[in-house]
């Protein structure tokens, strides 16, 4: 039994299509890939240090905003890939639903990146007014991975913004994938 590689399915999707349609598919795939990379990097962020003989782990799971970042990026990646399977005419209800889902996912991405960025800034700089000390000098590996995940998250937000602009300005092209 022969199974097709995803690249073959993508090639069939864009074969004979207009360049604008190809741009829509490429933007969607790039956004999905960047979101998946951001989620994986953040989900694998951890470091354990020893303070006064006690092991103290730093994991993304210990901070709700970082958990939201992972869940949001994973959901965006999965939904963005699923949308590629929805063939729809530009004026159809499915095309409008895809656009609404894209807008909602864009908002989730913005919220996830903002909340993770805020907590990472707190980890790096602390808050002297609240008496919170910075921790990144103690767990640099963890903080570097969080920073890498945030960069991938920002790339995802930019790609999703471009995808939304493309979908809104050229609905007959980007919605009929």
Automatic annotation (TrEMBL):
Ranges for domain Casparian strip membrane protein: 18-159
Record key words, sorted: Cell membrane, Membrane, Transmembrane, Transmembrane helix
Its membrane topology: Multi-pass membrane protein
Annotated localization: Cell membrane
InterPro entries: CASP/CASPL, CASP_dom, CASPL
TM helices/strands, residue ranges: 21-45, 65-85, 97-119, 148-170
One family name in Pfam for this protein: CASP_dom
CC per GO annotation: plasma membrane
Main location (coarse class): membrane
NCBIfam families reported in the protein's UniProt record: A_tha_TIGR01569
Family: Belongs to the Casparian strip membrane proteins (CASP) family.
Summary of subunit composition and partner proteins: Homodimer and heterodimers.
Protein name: CASP-like protein
Species annotation: Zizania palustris (Northern wild rice)
